[in-house]
Amino acid sequence: MKSTKLNIKNGIFKKTIIPKVCLHQRKGDKHWGSERSFGSRTLQAERPAGKNPRSVEAAWACHVICALPDGKANAADSSFPRFGLGGSSCLQNMMASQLVKPDTRNCKRPRELEPQMPDSPQLSSLGKSDSSLSESSGLFYKDEALEKDLNVLKKYMEKTHQKTVIFGQEKTLPCIAPLLTTVEETPQVISAGVQGHFPEWLSGYLLRVGPGKFEFGKDKYNHWFDGMALLHQFKVEKGTVTYRSKFLQSDTYKANSDRDRIVISEFGTLALPDPCKNVFERFMSKFEKPAITDNTNVNYVLYKGDYYLSTETNFMNKVDIETLEKTEKVNWTKFIAVNGATAHPHYDPDGTTYNMGNSYGKHGSCYNVIRVPPEKSDPGETIHGAQVICSIASEEGMRPSYYHSFGMTRNYIIFIEQPLKINLWRIISSKIRGKAFSDGISWEPQYNTRFHVVDKHTGQLLPGMYFSKPFVTFHQINAFEDQGCVVIDLCCQDDGGILEVYQLQNLRKTGKELDQVYNLIARNSPRRFVLPLLGNLNAPEGENLSPLTYSSASAVKQADGKIWCSYENLYPEDLKEEGSIEFPQINYGQFNGKKYQFFYGCGFRHLVGDSLIKVDVVNKTRRVWREDGFYPSEPVFVPVPGASKEDDGVILSVVITPNQNKKNFLLVLDAKNFEELGRAEVPVQMPYGFHGTFVTI
User: Fold this and answer.
1) pLDDT value of position 115
2) First CA to last CA across the chain, in angstroms?
3) How many other β-carbons are positioned within 10 Å of the β-carbon of residue 526?
4) Which has the minimum average pLDDT: 71-80, 207-216, 282-291?
5) Which of 263, 531, 600, 670 could disulfide-link to 635, CB 3.0 to 4.6 Å?
6) 3-state secondary structure (DSSP) of residue 440
7) Domain ranges across the chain
8) Is 31 annotated as a binding residue?
9) Cα dihedral angle (537, 540, 542, 545), rounded to 10 degrees?
């Protein structure tokens, strides 16, 4: 991977290619900073005392100082709009210090990136994320556009003051390798030791799933997503708690176990040919159609009253939630023309389930909205009656967008086509090339992000063309309708390289190497977008179509009829101290698809969640639960029976530790004040997992 920089020489900007950015971090008791090397220049950043020493977000909260050839430095005020993690800020300072005319002999501008907004000093040519430093996107300028940007920068930075960077003693992230290591299952029910109390009204199963086995024989998995599914069950009843866990007896798990090696490929691991075959047979096996894994390790989903384990392939496994035994394997392709479906469906109050899945054919690829009826007409049914109600053609037929979830309101499905691309040719040829499926996914920020809105009752795709700057989202928070608009809240980041970072060899690093891995990841933050619907689309060019006075998110009509959407940050300023926020959850049963106030998530000051956070999106405040050395799972909200307020209920989270001398536990918090009510400790090892649900009994 290479990066792009601008050299200032003889009054001319020239673009050169340098090795990948080298990132270092130092921090101390009073101040901390970070620095990035760009050839002969070094970007340094300062953060005030008391802030999170591991959140290297120079682009958001730091005063940026760039060393210039004459030994002087210019500082950009922290309120200046940033792009990515600080690289663009360095370039901004460099350009502002020497206002020169660029060498445009080889310059070109293949597409407009981000329109200029009147309410902030936007940069039409620099409106990119951290990827503006990458070779793939390049830095393309026209003379007039660059001069305009430089003038904006010069005027803005005349108001700033130079800052001093103070570095202190280095502190590294703790090792979490034990949380990403194979564990034994606990098939027999064991009692948990309760401290504090669990509410008497709380009765049911907390079900979770995630990877729990990372090798077979001498074969080892490469990626966190590859591990074999381990099912967890906490049963809460009358203040007592029990625990059990079992490996999902998928066909993949059984085939690997029988041969004591990896025989079916996963997301980041290519299964090698049978070593017992001769050379010719091993070579010819590269041309055989690869088997699709049924290792459904991502989430529990509900269809027609039954629970299934799902990933994003065409297979799901139906399970008995009391015994954790697999009862049936279901193939989506037997019912509708899709090649898979997400592990994050949405549910209407009547039990109707909506999902999305891709289909691939000779004419390219489509994103399909799926509807599954709420009831069975026969006791033996699974997803019978499922239908595709809308198909959306991908922007590039053989390079569709990767997506992990979608949004839903009372009347609409919101699909986000983001520039995290799946190269189907690379996927198809992966076995021949000796590469895993993950090799076919790439972050391509030269493309903008697009929102598609579908009427879920009629299946009609609305005509609005909604675009935003490149970003990646894996989990939507909530969506609702208000004053003729769809409002959608998401956990977003400005760089799509995170999938590659979560290789197991990275997660298991220690010391400075682990810090370097963490610093590669763009920070996730909650954002709100507003999408005006059909009635507002005839407004004149340049008008903000959003009528919502309570949100700073804008939707500006462009000359070509497109609507450019700029987001509102939903987080309080001090949320940055928590690093990132992910695994968002709400009071789903009462507020999904409706206007809401609270969501809950995990704070990521590490590569896995290390805190639980409650965010008030109206007042932009937060509450945090944290215990040093422990790592909580996705929070699950359970409402008090007959609750009248949105946050009347409790939060459940499985909290684990790499410290073998301490116990893992199920945590229960009062959702209103975020205070601990109790915990139930179990003397078993657990790996860090993905998702789950609570089922009332």
Assistant:
1) 40
2) 52
3) 24
4) 71-80
5) 600
6) helix
7) 2-157, 177-696
8) no
9) -40
